[in-house]
Amino acid sequence: MLFWLLSCSATDFAELQHAWPVLPPNPMETSPLDPSLPGVRLLQSWIREQLPLSIAVVGQEPIEGRLIWQDPEFLAIERAGASRPVLINRRQISVIRSLG
Fold this sequence. Notes:
Largest sheet: 5 strands, antiparallel
Number of domains: 1
Strand content: 25-35%
Number of helices: 3
Distance between the termini: 58 Å
Order of helices and strands: HHHEEEEE
């Protein structure tokens, strides 16, 4: 790299100054759900078994219900007697316990 810098001309540096900037990764982008991770596989097995769970969420009471799906950002919990699932942001979860 140093050799390349020493051999560059003034026009090479001018081109570098006007090149598209390299942007840092977007913190709002999510990585795909990795099914090779043991935690993802365990949650998938709990979905298949329809086990009741207790999910501790930062700053709130634990949420109990049945996990119905997961994606890289959220878990969907179906609570007893509710007509719609509750979405829980993965970043807000501190503990997930199986109740079954």
